Amino acid sequence: MRRDLESHLENIAGIVSGASGEIYVASHPSADPDSISSLIALSQLVKYMGSETQPKFIAVNGVASNAAKLLELGEKSNLYSVIDHTPQRGDLLVVLDAPDCGRASISCDVYEHIYIIDHHALNGDPSRYGRRTHVLRDEYYTSTTEIVVQLLKILGEKIPVELDRDISTAILAGLLYDTRILQHPSIIALDSAQYLMMHGASIGDALRLIQTEMRLDERIARVKGIMRARAYRVNSYIVCLSHVGAHESSLAQLLAAAGCDLAIVLSDKEDHLRISLRCSQNLCRGEVDLESMLLKKLSSIFGARYGGHRRAAVASTPKLPMGEIESRIIAILESFFGADLKPLKP
Ligand SMILES: [Mn+2]
Questions:
Q1: What's the gap in Å between 62 CA and the centre of ligand 1?
Q2: Which of 20, 95, 191, 205 is the most exposed place for a label (fewest CB within 10 A)?
Q3: What is the pLDDT at residue 124?
């Protein structure tokens, strides 16, 4: 793993030193704290590699509200600039926290090099692109931030790398977010957290950077989603289904916290249907995960695309009546469990 990172570091350094034009960075839609903390860490990395150009973050697909403070902090500290259009050409595009350009929802045709740095396990139906693409992606890692921090750390063994306290704290925020405040860290995440804390990072300050009060529209979506939820019992598991106009992943998380082993939330978008899913540790373990249980079948039946992790994922299908998708989901699950899903009565 260490050797793998060393060779990626050399590779990135080679590309950055050869880059005469712009370095762009993109992430998944509504970029989260892990996206932005890894952007901050990456900006430090290319700076210490001697790049004269500052990265430009392509923000066309939005930034989550809990990542807004981080994004502003990095911009105000002059680490990168934020642009709200898609570039016409560029030397290098770094895709952070997304497994490919499709998931990042941008066109990758205009860049000489594409570097993907990610830790997502699932990538149903990856997009294809012809340019030189380099991939540093391993589901072993519990955040994208820790991968970039390790690159910085290794670089720091060769040349002096100085991170000030505020920057270290901002980088730590994304790592804390994706590991659920170190409840699910890889050993590398712990090592990266230690490295950042040795540079002055504070866990308390990092958490304050990503704390937000939930907005009214999100609270309404969650409450409506609970009112619409249907629950089923199958064997010793509870399966919950609901739908909302927006904030589907927030609702899925809430249903999971309520005790649903499998939470499935549909959301009708402009040109597709989005499905957000959560699976409990009780149900998704060993060989069982969201992909084997449901996503692969949804993909073969509806051409659904999906991505995420073994126990938290998102899929999108062509726009079809919600009822049709729901009854198909129930049929897939009944054949998976080999038993009927029995409605739980309120
Ligand atoms: Mn992440």
A1: 16
A2: 20
A3: 65
Separation of CA 119 and ligand 1 centre (Å)? 7
Q: pLDDT, tens digit, for every residue of 48-94?
A: 999 888 999 999 988 999 999 999 999 999 999 999 999 988 889 99
- The confidence band for 129, taking pLDDT boundaries of 50, 70 and 90, is low
Torsions phi, psi for 284 (to 5 deg): -90, 90
Residue 35 Cα to ligand 1 middle (Å): 6
Q: How far is the CA of 157 from the centre of ligand 1 (A)?
A: 26
Longest dimension (CA), the chain: 64
Give the confidence band of 317 by pLDDT, cuts at 50, 70, 90. Answer: very high
Question: Among 49, 73, 36, which Cα is nearest to 151's?
Answer: 49
Distance 118 CA to ligand 1 centre (A): 7
Tens digits of residue pLDDT in 28-51: 988 999 999 999 999 999 999 998
| Domains, in order of start, for the chain | 2-209 (3.90.1640.10), 217-343 (3.10.310.20)
Distance 144 CA to ligand 1 centre (A): 5
Burial class (CB in 10 A: 0-12, 13-18, 19+), 286: exposed
Greater confidence (102 vs 172) lies with 172
Going from the Cα of 178 to the center of ligand 1, the distance in angstroms, rounded, reads 6
Distance (angstroms) between ligand 1 centre and the Cα of 94 equals 15
Per-residue buried b or exposed e for 198-214, using 16+ beta carbons within 10 Å of the residue's own CB: ebebebebbeebbeeee
**Cα 275 to middle of ligand 1, angstroms:** 19
143: CA distance to ligand 1 center in Å?
A: 5
Q: How far apart are CA 332 and CA 297, in angstroms?
A: 7
For 281, the 3-state DSSP assignment is: coil
> Could you tell me the distance, in angstroms and rounded to a whole number, from the CA of residue 29 to the centre of ligand 1?
12
Predicted confidence (pLDDT) at residue 130 exceeds the cutoff of 60: no
Q: Between 165-178 and 144-156, two packed helices, what is the crossing angle to 10 degrees?
A: 140
